Amino acid sequence: MNSTLMAESLKKNGNCVANCSISQATVIYNYTVGSGDMYYEEVAERNVFIRGDEESGFHIWAECVAGGKATAVDLDEILLEGALASEVRGRALETERLADNFAERLGQSVARHVSLSLSGKSNIHRAMLTLKCILGSMHIPFTPEQIDDEINYVFDQCPLCNAAERSGIRTEVELAHHELGTLISSAIGFIDPEFRVRFPSDRYAEHVFAIIKKACP
Known about the structure:
Layout: H1 3-11, E1 26-34, E2 42-53, E3 57-64, E4 73-74, H2 75-86, H3 92-117, H4 123-136, E5 142-147, E6 150-155, H5 159-167, H6 173-191, E7 196-198, E8 207-212
Antiparallel strand pairs: 1-2, 2-3, 3-4, 5-6, 6-8, 7-8
């Protein structure tokens, strides 16, 4: 992906909810967007915002610093941009380490904000709203289902694959899937280490995420 394509991607805001605004929002993270050229080029810096409450739910998005709503992207594209910024050509382990660090810090920041907003609630309630926030910030509707001790969240389509087509950041989609797993695991683990999350087996499988209330032995 070249600098021109990335610059065009930064201009798109159709994939973010129409009423994205920094009013009553909190900056929870910051990252640099790279061009993905052979020689790494920094294109822009983004702030990641979160806003909402227990009743309306929480939403995550990012905007370029001093760029405003015209540069807004949802979480699915945040993950693709994080994967692009983490890539170290020819060094797969270092790339994965950087992507994990990006996603882990972001996940913990989301969980910390939601937890502080719901300080009087149970861990499972906070975990449910945190996962709903993460999945709901990726532009694709999902269906929640309660099955015994599991809380399932079912997508009809893969949000990251769709975002890759929209944004043009197609080469990073596999790493972005890895980041999503790290993001969710770190967020839910921050709230309660005894909870675990089951993920889709791969990008082509049924897109079901599940919170399991008690960790398996």
